[in-house]
Amino acid sequence: MRTTEYTTALQGTPYFRSVGIIKVADKKDNQYNVAEIAFERFDDQNYQYVFSPYWGQIETLPSNIFSGIPGIDMDIQKEHYYRVNMTPSFISKRTPSQSREDVWELLKEVGLDYYDRFEWLLRTDMRCGDDNFIVVRKHDKAVTYEEPSAEKINLFQPGDRVVLNQLCDISTNRNDLSESMFRLFQSGVTIFVKEDNMVLTVEECRRNLYSLGRMMEYEKAFQTLRQKAGIEKAKAEGKYKGRKRISLDPLLFKETVNQFQEGLITEEEALKILQLSRSTFYRRMREKI
């Protein structure tokens, strides 16, 4: 009975609604849209969070990139998941609680003079521990991108419009073309191709995702084989020494980690101090150096 109370949608029209997009990032920080998340307040001071997965986009993502949204049972594939009068773990794990000592400093940093953990989340680029989720504010209205580069794909949101001279213009790197095309088609945008005077709808893009995904897998497998062959050749010639481990000052590393864990510095500041990538930073934290 208690679970039903927390998961049954409130009736009526909310007087306030704020919406974000949940994105998942791969090791290269290529971001993929996986769900919409809304925070709604009602006249009687009740509130709810609403998770709305983008099932059409999710189904084609490999499991090493996306394996579900924490706290949501995605096996039953609902159109909407409700969390009523409670803060879901997905939110509580990546936002400061009201009892945190430095909560007002954190709010002030993003221009807030009142406590609103969802609004705080939308104004920051912080991530939770070592997971790969990002939450950004949903565009108020559809955005049109004229001849964007591959670097702009992370900005795309479902409903946006992308204008290209040719589809292949989305990437200037031939080796990354399939990956860029996959990201473009997965983003939920409508694409207008000038040269062919053609419009690709969201549904048409989705129908191509499986083929593009397979092409990416084949290309990565081929690159792995080439790399392995190159390493074996270098070993045979006595030229291969392996990847050199990044050298760190133990005292600086320990101090920086302590400051980060105590909330005195941000993740971005810690990475800058240590000159590490995000994945290496968390791996070395687990290894304790």
Furnish the topology, listing elements before pairings.
Elements: H1 2-7, E1 16-25, E2 31-41, E3 47-53, H2 55-58, E4 81-84, H3 89-92, H4 103-109, H5 117-123, E5 133-137, E6 144-146, E7 161-164, H6 177-186, E8 190-193, E9 198-200, H7 202-236, H8 250-261, H9 267-274, H10 278-287
Parallel strand pairs: 6-7, 7-8
Antiparallel strand pairs: 1-2, 1-5, 2-3, 3-4, 8-9
Describe the structure.
The structure is a single chain. This protein has 289 residues and is α+β, with helices and mostly antiparallel strands. It has three domains: 2-137, no CATH class; 144-236, Resolvase, N-terminal catalytic domain (Rossmann fold); 250-287, no CATH class. It has helices at 2-7, 55-58, 89-92, 103-109, 117-123, 177-186, 202-236, 250-261, 267-274, 278-287, and strands at 16-25, 31-41, 47-53, 81-84, 133-137, 144-146, 161-164, 190-193, 198-200. It has a five-stranded antiparallel beta sheet with strand order 4-3-2-1-5. Strand 7 (161-164), helix 6 and strand 8 (190-193) form a beta-alpha-beta unit. Helix 6 (177-186) runs antiparallel to helix 7 (202-236) and helix 8 (250-261) runs antiparallel to helix 9. The radius of gyration is 22 Å and the shape is globular.
Structure in a nutshell:
The chain is of the alpha+beta class and 289 residues long. It has helices at residues 2-7, 55-58, 89-92, 103-109, 117-123, 177-186, 202-236, 250-261, 267-274, 278-287; strands at 16-25, 31-41, 47-53, 81-84, 133-137, 144-146, 161-164, 190-193, 198-200. The chain has three domains: 2-137, no CATH class; 144-236, Resolvase, N-terminal catalytic domain (Rossmann fold, 3-Layer(aba) Sandwich), CATH 3.40.50; 250-287, no CATH class.
